Amino acid sequence: MKAVLVAVSLLAIFISVKAVPSCPEKDPAVPVYYPHDVYCYKFYECSDGHAYELECAPPLNWDQAKTTCDDQVDCGKLKPRA
Prior knowledge:
Antimicrobial Protein, Tachycitin, Chain A, elongated, Chitin-bd_dom
């Protein structure tokens, strides 16, 4: 019974951990951006080896191809701004 509780607790922790992208240690000349894994209007910007979650101003969504927020974005499976 104890083993089952430990396994369920570890699974809950694993599921709750966000998939944060890996960033370069040193900032390159051109900023590095990654799309959010759930929301179309959120994205990550790398700085000093860390990924910082940012959000586009309403009503815009993140366009990874243009690396900017835009009002004409195909969000695919990501959740768009409501």
